[in-house]
Amino acid sequence: MKSMIKAFGIVLLITVIGISMGACASSASPRVTYNSVTITDIPSAFEGKFAMLTLDTGGSGARTLAWGTRTITGSSATFNLLDWVTDRPTTIREGNYGVNLIIAANMTAITNDEEEYVGIIMSRAFFGETVLIEFGELMSF
Q1: At residue 60, what are phi and psi to the nearest 5 degrees?
Q2: Nearest-5° Cα angle at 92, 87 to 94
Q3: 42 to each of 9, 73, 109, 117, 125, how far by Cα in Å?
Q4: At 71, phi and psi to the nearest 5?
Q5: Per residue in 106-135, pLDDT tens?
Q6: Do 37 and 97 touch, CB atoms closer than 8 A?
Q7: CA–CA distance from 111 to each of 6, 81, 107, 130 (Å)?
Q8: Do 77 and 70 contact (CB within 8 A), yes or no?
Q9: Cβ of 67: how many Cβ atoms within 10 Å?
Q10: Exposure pattern of 95-105 as b/e (b: 16+ CB <10 Å)?
Q11: Residue 32 carries which DSSP code?
């Protein structure tokens, strides 16, 4: 009987530890997701121009995940992200991404390789509440 109580106590202790660990895991803060990216400090020379932003997995063999377009007004532009394949609104998780920004007169100019500006960040960490990227962070081509 004494060994049965001891075994029950050990099982109970293991159960309590397991439940405690599970509770800690579920109370951890969830990973932040983003549905937009804002480029700040855009030079005034690009006011009124068409811009396209893409996000990829970065590195060799990069795969494009999301994209967005907008006309630049003022010194910043917020791009609402669309899934690259489905063209539906999407979110991405915290992580490192390649960022590509193309500025042209319109979408046709981009299609015809008549860009006025092409900038890239090979790997940019996305973390925190919002994604703000200064124009100066982009390496232009």
Answers
A1: -70, 145
A2: 165
A3: 66, 9, 20, 11, 20
A4: -90, 135
A5: 999 998 999 999 999 999 999 888 899 999
A6: no
A7: 74, 20, 6, 30
A8: yes
A9: 19
A10: eebbbbbbbbe
A11: P
| C-alpha closest to that of 132 among 122, 124, 141 | 124
The residue type at 38: T
Closest CA to 51 of 38, 32, 33: 38
Q: Is 8 exposed, middle or buried (0-12, 13-18, 19+ CB in 10 A)?
A: exposed
pLDDT of residue 10: 46
Cβ contact 55:99 at 8 Å = yes
Helix (H, G, I), strand (E, B) or coil at 29: coil
Q: What is the pLDDT of residue 109?
A: 93
User: 45 CB contacts (<8 Å, ≥6 apart)?
Assistant: none
Mean pLDDT per segment of 10 residues, for the chain of length 141 residues? 48 44 49 91 96 88 91 95 95 93 94 94 89 95 79
Contact 47, 73 (CB under 8 A): yes
The pLDDT assigned to 28 comes to 52
